Amino acid sequence: MPNSDAHIVRSYSDELQNISALVAKMGGLAETILTDAMTALVKRDADLSTQAIQADKRVDNLDAEIEYQVVRMLALRQPMAVDLRSIISALKIAQSLERIADHAKNGAKRALVINQSPPMDATRGIVRLSDVAREMLRSVLDAYVNSDAEGAVKVRDRDEDLDVLYDGYFRECLTYMMEDNRNITAATHLLFIAKNIERIGDHCTNIAENVYYMQTGERLSTARPKGEDAMGLKAE
Amino acid sequence: MLDSETNSATIADPKVVCRDVSVSYSGKQALFDIDLDIGSHQVTSLIGPSGCGKSTFLRCMNRMNDVIDGCVVTGSISVDGVEILDDEIDAVQLRRRVGMVFQKPNPFPKSIYDNIAYGPRIHGLVRGKDELDEVVQTSLERAGLWEEVKDRLLQPGTGLSGGQQQRLCIARAIAVRPDVILMDEPCSALDPIATARVEELIDELKRSYSIVIVTHSMQQAARVSQRTAFFHLGIVVEVGETEQIFTNPRDERTQGYITGRYG
Ligand SMILES: Nc1ncnc2c1ncn2[C@@H]1O[C@H](COP(=O)(O)OP(=O)(O)O)[C@@H](O)[C@H]1O
Ligand SMILES: [Mg+2]
């Protein structure tokens, strides 16, 4: 947990740890939703899709709970220095996790639709993207829990790989559509899922920047390299 | 001594420059080689655990330690370039230029008017009653007290509420047109509203004076000051812009103190 050195007022430390624990729990849930959504897509498992869609509500509830706790602590504890940074970071990270879970849930919904159509090879390509995104999510949560600023920097640097994969996958889907126009519906949904995953990578990057700030008090410089963009469409 | 990597003890255009200031009481050292600059037209807050030497340091700047038996101050303190630890310096004159407001409001047992008029009179800063009246009025106005007391100037200052008494003491301090105002926990005996009024006043006064405030309330330091120095065991551990000290202190000890952790 970040900065668990004891405060003189023990309940203050307990509250800070409680917020960190809620964020970690939320992150774990978001990760599960992403994994389930992708498994549901690949295995054509409607029940798992539904499960992932429903789990998103728990993420929303945790987000609300964290916001409540943060407001309460700001009012009652008047946190300073690393405590202030941790509390603000928790709020922002929770927002990112809420978005991540939402994107993953959207993937689960689309999986239900895609799985009405015959299986497509393009489905497998998306696993490569989601593996990178999930790895980023897991690493950034580890960095959060372990207060590891260096780990956070590494996560951020992986976002570029995801952008490159996304551009490649975009081309792949277009190829499927051109090959056979009966693929268009499913391939379009897959493209949206890919876009969602690419956004998840961006949110992981935001979380990484928050972890870094929480730990060091410094902002990570925002300039980071963007890959070549084969489609003339920026993966932003 | 400060580690220059993590501290900005020196600033451009300082009002007060303190170097190697050490203080001992009957041979027991309380402050160790303090280097600190006090800026013009800003508020510098001194924070740190009880007994770390904040009040001792504050008293150095107007030589109030002179009156304490066994207290020895060494080093150099200059105000506007003039060395004040010099024996030649007239402490009474110095205290006009470097005023002080204490923790407990301590109005003289005289009328409100005389509380303010006393300093300008003994320092010969005014000629005639009209001028004195004017100094009394402007000082009370600047202290935000005029409206509340203008109809009872001849009543005793001790009859005012605690918050009013403290503002009276501030009015008394500014009546002699000082350059620097030292405040030692000026709000610790006041309720939140009276505290807010004094803080508002401090904010107002910093346009004209250099203010140094010792406070136990970190929130107060954060609210009123532009620079903050953290004292610990007789040394300045860290000094910097208030915002930096409270959002991103460089030293573990500062962090431990301001976040309320065991250090
Ligand atoms: N008049 C005095 N006589 C002897 N020792 C004193 C006197 N004033 C302060 N001290 C000692 O000097 C140290 C610093 O005290 P002080 O400046 O009052 O600290 P602070 O204002 O930070 O609480 C303490 O150890 C205190 O006991
Ligand atoms: Mg003191």
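qc> The first helix of chain B runs from residue 54 to 60.
qc> done
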